[in-house]
Amino acid sequence: MRLPAVAGALGLAASLAAAIPTISTKGSKFFTSEGDQWFIKGTINSVPGIAYQLVPDDPLIDNDQCQRDASLMQELGANAIRVYHVDPNVNHDSCMSTFEEAGIYLFLDLDTFDTQIEQNNPHWNESQVERFSAVMDAFHTYDNLAGFFVGNEVITMSNGSASAVFIKAAIRDMKAYRDSRSYRQIPIGYSAADISSIRPMLQNYLACGSNASEALDFFALNAYEWCGNTTYRESGYSHLTQMLIDIDYPLPIFFSETGCNTIRPRTFADQAAILGPEMTPYWSGALVYEWIQEMNNYGLISYGPQVEATASGAPPDGFTRSGTPTPVLPDFTNLQSQWATLSPEGVRVDQYSPTLTPPPCPEATPGQWEVDGDVALPTIGQVLDAAGRSSIGGVTGAATGSQAGASPTGAAVRREVKGGMAGLVGVAAGVVALL
Ligand SMILES: *[C@@H]1O[C@H](CO)[C@@H](O)[C@H](O)[C@H]1NC(C)=O
Ligand SMILES: *[C@@H]1O[C@H](CO)[C@@H](O)[C@H](O)[C@H]1NC(C)=O
Ligand SMILES: *[C@@H]1O[C@H](CO)[C@@H](O)[C@H](O)[C@H]1NC(C)=O
Ligand SMILES: *[C@@H]1O[C@H](CO)[C@@H](O)[C@H](O)[C@H]1NC(C)=O
């Protein structure tokens, strides 16, 4: 049908106005540019998100695939995905607009495989700044970009806490870069492994200090504590929440990975807690790990049966990484039913005037937390040699190096590239709840 010119123009204006609202933070909450509090499961977009990394390099290039997946994610009820690695040098317009049209936001890690901050011999140098900046340059224009992470599970061992100063240096420099380019106030956060011995020090440290330019915009936790039919109290979630209440945590916080798989089928009962009345005053939702079924057995969908990994032309690990997504049952429908019943009510931004202050910077605790208070952050290029240790101050010597709280990705995504995806099963089996 031919529309009169005026109606056509109005239609265009309406479709521009209907662009997805952008996300920013205020106090301890996320808000949309329309003023609604946003839950990763939201008021306008009613559901939480999913970890989405089909291929190690970049899952946001093949728009046919993005369309097939976005459409099923909409049925599942997701309003956000998380992607761990992208190639900043290719075009992502099609996939990003496909997800935008499906009402799905993106949380994106800024690091590439060879630039992530490491807990052993940590450093933060010019090459890392350049790569992180390139990813920010490539994605900042997308309205459905909800936030960036400067790292995923940099610290996985209890003796890695000194590297927190490098994480904070990355936050400082990426926020400064965002602002120097006059990009919108895209929230910049960190995604932590759930390590009991450095809770709540890490989340407080990254938020602490008098200079907001050096603090996180949001904190996120990869937590696999809730397995099967446990409860808010027994799972440890009440404990996680209490640590926020105790300090009046000033930033938004959410689960950047969740979805324990040690009890099957997965019922995702934790979603009712995370998006329910006990937690929504303090938490902003959850990203479920993960979209694709692969060796670690966390998938919500699969693209076909596993094939012999050693056969010629076999996909990595024998798991096809594209095609028509087929729900893994009953997990997929279990999650779908949880999300369908959950619609947390938030506050309107104009009715929210928090008086929050940063928490005190934690003091060093021998054998546990190695950064003593509000120390000067490393400069670009600094490393953690003796001089580095002394200049960040108060480091108290080696903590024990026990493996703690490692989740499927922290280890797995890294291993995919560095070690050819070996050991994912062991990683998944090693997931432990630490209270
Ligand atoms: C940064 O550190 C990495 C890893 O050690 C190194 O390969 C790279 O050359 C360094 N970049 C600069 C500018 O020093
Ligand atoms: C806050 O931190 C930024 C980034 O490190 C720095 O440029 C600025 O001078 C600091 N402000 C104050 C008041 O110290
Ligand atoms: C978990 O609860 C559901 C619903 O009450 C029940 O059907 C299921 O058998 C329970 N699973 C276990 C492992 O207890
Ligand atoms: C932490 O401990 C592990 C083994 O327990 C060791 O391999 C690693 O080098 C230690 N890291 C640091 C930063 O001391």
Task: Give a quick precis of the structure.
This protein is an alpha/beta fold.
CATH architecture: Alpha-Beta Barrel
Fill in the CATH topology. Answer: TIM Barrel
Q: Give the fraction of residues assigned to helices.
A: 25-40%
**Whole-number radius of gyration?**
21 Å
Q: Which term fits the overall shape?
A: globular
The CATH class designation is Alpha Beta
Bound molecules: 2-acetamido-2-deoxy-beta-D-glucopyranose
Low-confidence stretches: 1-17, 42-48, 411-435
CATH superfamily: Glycosidases
The helix/strand class is alpha/beta
> Total number of β-strand segments?
12
Profile the largest sheet. 8 strands, parallel, barrel
Number of helices: 13
End-to-end CA span: 63 Å
Strand content: 5-15%
Q: How many distinct folded domains?
A: 1
Mean pLDDT, rounded to whole units? 85
Strand order of the largest sheet: 3-4-5-6-7-8-9-10
- What order do the helices and strands follow? HEEEHEHEHEHEHEHHEHEEEHHHH
Write structural notes for this entry.
- The chain is of the alpha/beta class and 435 residues long.
- It has a single domain, classed as Glycosidases (TIM Barrel).
- The strands form three sheets. Strands 3-4-5-6-7-8-9-10 form an eight-stranded parallel barrel. The chain has a two-stranded antiparallel ribbon with strand order 1-2. A two-stranded antiparallel ribbon has the order 11-12.
- The longest helix is centred in the middle third of the chain and has 17 residues.
- The protein is globular and about 55 Å long.
- One 2-acetamido-2-deoxy-beta-D-glucopyranose binds next to helix 4.
- Its main location: membrane.
